Amino acid sequence: MQNEKNTDQNFNCPMVKFVNLIAGKWAIPILYRLIITNEPIRFGELKRAISPITQKELTKQLRLFEQKGLISRKLYPEVPPKVEYQITELGKTLKPALNSIANWMKQHEQELR
Amino acid sequence: MQNEKNTDQNFNCPMVKFVNLIAGKWAIPILYRLIITNEPIRFGELKRAISPITQKELTKQLRLFEQKGLISRKLYPEVPPKVEYQITELGKTLKPALNSIANWMKQHEQELR
DNA sequence: CAGTATCCTTTAGGATACTG
DNA sequence: CAGTATCCTAAAGGATACTG
C-alpha cells in the first residue's frame, strides 16, 4: 500500500517524534518549570507556577510525561493528599536540545516575518 | 490582570515560539524535504514526495513558511502554471536545531516508555 | 498544474462541578 | 489537595469538487 510508505516515513522521523512529544500547549511550560526547579514540586504549586493551566490539562500532560519517563511522581499517602513531581535524569537530557531550539529562536526572531 | 503574566510568559518563551513554528502536522516533513532537496522543487513533486498530504494543507503550510521567510516561492507565468519552492538561507539555519532534536530522539528513543 | 472553496470529522483544550 | 467526570467550543485537518 502506497500510503503506508510516507505515513511510516513521518512516524519514523525522529524530528516528527520529538515534536509530537513536546507539541502540547502546556508541554514546554511544564517541562521547563520542572527542569529549572530541579527538585520535587507539589501539584498545586506547579499549577500556580504555570497558570492559567487547568487541572485537567496539567494532570493529563503530567501523566504523559510520567509514562515516558521524563518526570517522576511521588504520592504521599496523607490526608489531604500530597503529590510531588520531579524531572528525571532522562528528562534532564532534554536540556541541550531545548537550548538549541531556544537559541535559534532568540537569534532569528527578528528575521522572521 | 493576573492571567496576562503567564500567557505572556508562554508567548515570550522562545521554546514555545519554536514549537509553534514547527508543530503543524506537515511542517517538519515539508521543511525537511526542502532542506535535503536544497534546490527548487515544483509544487506537484513536493506533494508527491510527502504524500499523503492534501493540496489544501500543503498550500497552507507553504504559505506560512513563505510568510516567515523560511522558504521562497517562484511563479513561472506559463500555461499550465509552474511554481517552484525552495528553502531560503534563513531556513537553512534551522538545520543545527533540527539536528539537535533529531539526535536526542535517536539517542533516547529506547529509554522512552 | 497549482491552486480555491466547501463541507465534514476529529481532536485539543477550556469551564465547571464533584470526590476520596 | 489532587485529582475525575462531564459538557462544550474552537481549531486542525481530511475529502472532494471546482477553476484560471
Summarize the structure in words:
2 copies of one chain form a homodimer. Chain A has 7 helices and 3 strands. The first copy, chain A, has one domain (26-111): Winged helix-like DNA-binding domain superfamily/Winged helix DNA-binding domain (Arc Repressor Mutant, subunit A), CATH 1.10.10.10. Chain A starts with a helix and ends in a 5-residue tail after the last helix. Residues 1-5 of chain A have low confidence and may be disordered. Chain A is an alpha+beta fold. The first copy, chain A, has helices at 2-12, 14-22, 27-37, 43-49, 55-68, 89-92, 95-108, and strands at residues 41-42, 71-76, 82-87. In chain A, β2 (71-76) and β3 (82-87) form a beta hairpin. A 3-stranded antiparallel sheet of chain A has the order 1-3-2. Chains A and B meet through α1, α2, α3 and α7 of A and α1, α2, α3 and α7 of B. Chain A binds a DNA duplex (20 and 20 nucleotides) through α4 and α5.
Primary descriptors:
WH_DNA-bd_sf (chains A, B), 3 strands, transcription (chains A, B), Arc Repressor Mutant, subunit A, 3-stranded antiparallel sheet, homodimer, DNA-binding, 113 residues, disordered N terminus, DNA binding (chains A, B), globular, 7 helices, alpha+beta
Number of helices of chain A: 7
Structural class of chain A: alpha+beta
Largest interface: A-B, 47 and 47 residues
Strand content bin of chain A: 5-15%
CATH topology value of chain A: Arc Repressor Mutant, subunit A
